[in-house]
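Next up, a chain.

===
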Amino acid sequence: MVSVVIPCYNSEKTIKRALLSVAQQSYKDYDVVIVDDGSVDDTKIVVEDFFNDLDMLYQYIYQENAGPSAARNRGVKNSSGEYIAFLDSDDEWHPRKLEIQLAIMREKKLNFLGSRYQYDAFDDSKKIVKLQSYTFNSLLIKNKYSTPGIMMKKVFFQNLGGFDESLHYAEDYDLWLQAAYKRDLYMIESPKLVRLYKEAYGENGLSAAMYSMFKGELYLAKKLFLSKKINCFLYGALVVYMSAKFVRRLVIVRFRKKEV
């Protein structure tokens, strides 16, 4: 069984779309764990109305606002599947997402598998599945995985210690790095099985969001250094690289705003 873990916060306008993409999956042996991270809108009503006439296993868990890491960790803790698939409340999956990922994970005996995302509507044509592996060192340069595209074995997630609940930015990147340090990670490059509805680094490319992401990345580099996963030379190089990348992002956003 696969447990679908969906954290949400004030998601009354988007969560039905996400849940519909789960209900339309070709693979049917799953349950859904929704963790409401302190919503004050009608998210709960929308969720209950959605499942009212459906024969689907689900849990709705409400908690005081504690951040996405805590919500996802609690979702996994309350899950019953051997595999965990993460989905955000404002995104959606290709109808064959679970089917394709699970088949590959079983065939290759993987603990972790990601999928590329897109912003456009899904292409219904059947494409040849293309896999790519990524090492720990390659992930240090760039986070190549989005949370809604990840499927993991539950026991592997637990052995990694779950998401760092002290982080509110780059918490996913942190976990992927911890996973990649143990073994190479795989990605389904094609077909793209996830559709996102918000741009990276904040929906509007806000400088505040990018700065928070930058601070999160610096924290991750320091965390890796202190845990002796990288040496002092690589740590210094990463700080310089991350700083240059942050400045580049700011410049790109500034030019975009001028064009508008």
Notes: The first helix runs from residue 15 to 23. Residues 83 and 154 are 5 Å apart (CA to CA). The longest strand covers residues 30-37. DSSP finds nine helices and eleven strands in the chain.
